[in-house]
Amino acid sequence: MTAGEFDSWGRIDRRARPAVSPDAYENLRDNAAPGAFLPFGNGRSYGDSCHNDQGRLIDSRMRTRILGFDPGTGIVSCDAGVTLRSILEQAIPHRFFLPVTPGTAAVTVAGAVANDVHGKNHHARGTFGKHVRRLMLLRSTGELLACSATENRDLFYATIGGMGLTGLILSVDLQLMKVPSAHIQQHAIRFDSLNDYFGMVETVDSEHEYSVAWIDQLATGKRAGRGVLLAGDHADASCEFPDMPRSMKLSVPFSPPFDLLNTVTLKAFNEFYFRKEKRGETVTTVKWPGYFHPLDAIGHWNRLYGPRGLYQHQSVYPADNARELTARLLETARKAGHASFLTVLKKFGEQASGGLLSFPRPGFTLTLDFANQGEQTLKLLNVLDAMVIEAGGAINAYKDARMSPQTFDSSFPQWRKLEELRDPAMVSNFWKRTALALPK
Ligand SMILES: Cc1cc2nc3c(=O)[nH]c(=O)nc-3n(C[C@H](O)[C@H](O)[C@H](O)COP(=O)(O)OP(=O)(O)OC[C@H]3O[C@@H](n4cnc5c(N)ncnc54)[C@H](O)[C@@H]3O)c2cc1C
Prior knowledge:
FAD-bd_PCMH_sub2; FAD; FAD_lactone_oxidase-like; FAD-bd_PCMH-like_sf; alpha+beta; globular; flavoprotein; five-stranded antiparallel β-sheet; 20 strands
């Protein structure tokens, strides 16, 4: 396999990676050596949790059938490699929508389960795994197990958020949600400081299905922490946009030899993005792809970070002192000379999915994207980790490419239970450098 085919989204460690189809895996698994495989979805994880350089990847994208959709109940059954975009295309004409949608529709359903992904409505609907009714899991022993809240329960909850380590998911039954329209009535609320954001977020979340804030990480002084809170609800049935708007897809054709998203360009972009919203609150109806997956309109936008790729740092921390910690995290990155293109702040709700290693937990989650500037960036990320862990928070594993075993242990103290249920044939680079580097 050539470099690029199995990259993860951060593009930090690019190399040719051997892979097999799920069909081939079914024949090979009998003699599988420990750690010989890892399922791969569509590489939208940022780091090394979807790679296994001691073995072969199992390419889920080779099975992409929608096996059934019941417009009465809204339950869709599909192969592991079906993308969320395909599910939306099937469901929207019947006025159903994904109950949880991450920031890109290019992920596979198995990838969404294995990382128990979250969306802009975590406060209302929890994570993706909460809506999975059943999944079929193939273990390397040859057992094909139906897993649900009532069948093989431990494996079900270990597989949700289990990062591909419990076996190969073959298919998923997912409960969709009924909506009047797929499009969104959006409330864009501009705020001048983190105090303003923290002062309104609880009320906004209680009033709207979706809510997420973009922050100008480079603003300083009185403007520090300014941003735009984008809340939304499904528009009513009279919305006049066609269900499937035509997509205008641009693409970044190759990686420029340097990072285009640097402090200078991002300062200008942030100023524009902030000023494009009027003061106060603006209500408009927007098409669903633009609201949920704006970056999907630009293919390979990750190439803009240049040949060395990017690191994403997503943390979650308790609500007490969140305002102060958010301000310190932003300032620490700024003072280290790092500009974050996508700086996103969201309040997670209380609902747990039950996933053993799920990332979301009550509190605030801050996401920062940094171009890889080598040692300087790694140093900054370690400092950010330490601040979050000290506050009782956690760092997201599927966005990570470098956290220490200790940071992982503090973030996911229950990891040993997943290790007990791990399929011995499966391992990832991430698991080797974190969990397996810790005492049992
Ligand atoms: C632009 C962008 C926006 C994003 N926004 C969000 C967001 O809002 N919220 C969020 O939570 N995440 C977000 N993400 C991250 C992304 O949703 C997750 O990393 C997702 O899990 C990637 O799925 P994938 O299909 O690409 O799988 P991969 O990244 O290839 O793999 C993910 C995991 O799934 C496992 N896996 C894949 N197939 C199978 C299978 N058949 N059986 C068992 N395990 C399997 C892999 O081993 C791996 O551990 C975003 C990513 C991008 C690039």
